[in-house]
Amino acid sequence: MSSSNGGIRVVVADDHVVFAEGLRYILEDAGFAVVGVAGDCRAAAVLVRDQQPDLAVLDVHMPGGSATALVRRVKEDSPSTRIAMLSMQASSRRVAELEDLGIAAYLSKVVDAATLCSVLTAAVHSSGGGTIRVVPGVVDAPHPPVALRAGDRELLEHIAAGRSNKWIARELFVSEATVKRRLAEVYRELGASTRAGAISRAHQLGLIRHDHGTP
To answer: Is the CB of residue 118 less than 8 Å from the CB of residue 39?
Structure first.
């Protein structure tokens, strides 16, 4: 996997040409390398198979097949490719179904460009399980108010940028064990058990700035 946006190779698939080209522009402007754009499920599957990208950004509703079949095909043909699904509308059942297949992210098409790029970067770099979910109106069970300590937001920004515990420890001049302990405390406060869950919750609460850099 790549260590920065400039090395993240992406396939984009959406049957709305204007949206697909707009997404290509947003990603390339943010430093991603878009290696191909497809307009239906069959073309997307072939493109991913041929390009073996780091990330496939796929529309949930496209002609030529179902989203679940496409995800299964991508995982079979390119196991190392992380998958992010985009949708204008989403039911909790559909989101859960795709999460069970192991997608890395599920985002609403109404998210802003900065959030989109931040989540896609985290989806590629995240080594833990779980899906980063940024879908207004489709949320997990409510959590009590979050009370983060000084420095906790910085930790969240680091993990959202895909940085390892070792990298964070070196940057903050603390031990790796300290980083693990502090992250565990942040996860508990957010009601999350994985990096993906913590990033999802942090985005929902507006706790992550979108100007953080990449490793």
So the answer is: no
